[in-house]
Design brief:
Blueprint: H1 2-13, H2 17-35, H3 40-61, H4 66-86, H5 90-115, H6 123-150, E1 156-157, H7 164-175, E2 184-185, H8 188-220, H9 222-232
Antiparallel strand pairs: 1-2
Helix pairs in contact: 2-3, 2-6, 2-7, 3-4, 3-5, 4-5, 5-6, 6-7, 6-8
Amino acid sequence: MKTVYLAFKKFWSANKSFSFLLLVLSLYVFVLIPLLTNSVFSQISFLLYYYILLGSGIPFMQRRNQRLIMALLVFFPLLFLIIEISFASLWLQIFTDFFVIGYCIMLGHVILTRTFAKGRIDNKRVQGAVIVYLLIALVFCLVYHSIFLLSDMQAFKGLTGSDRKEFLYFSLTTLTTEGYGDIVPLWPFSRSFSNLESLLGQLYPAILIARLVSMEFYDRAPHAEQVQDRSINGNV
């Protein structure tokens, strides 16, 4: 049992854990959410996959306040789901949105810290930056959903429903500055957040991801190894 725990801990302490988290998050964003409906089965499926995503992200944040994080991210989502299935509450949906937003922000912060930590830059760190990019889309998706509910469903034009998948579609097209024009923000806050997301969508890949890729190529170059050797020997 101890051997399994040590192997699990070693896996999550390495940057290769980014690959697994990226796979889970991609399936969550591009497969699960678009297929969800308001049925009980979909809500249970959402919860089960949420725990998979949670299990992929908790090891990144377990060094501090482990018990508090486990209580917040494991117990409360189950409680929210039971209440949401039993009682269709507007404020519960909004509270759930902000709960997941907080989780995504915490996870994104930890991943970025590990991505830009000291050490050799490899493709796993680039994957970490892509994970945060997808988390940005998910955060804005939930922000739009909350704004839509708070505005009495008047904040956007062109929506076919109030499902979160509609807002994820709008969030991704806004983040990538695709802008098909089928969904249009009308409320002042929905417009402001749309502008903010499109700005982040342009600056984040151009600055952070491009910087990581260039650093990876630099670390792979022969002269980088020579500089490192010279630095170790005290010649630089």
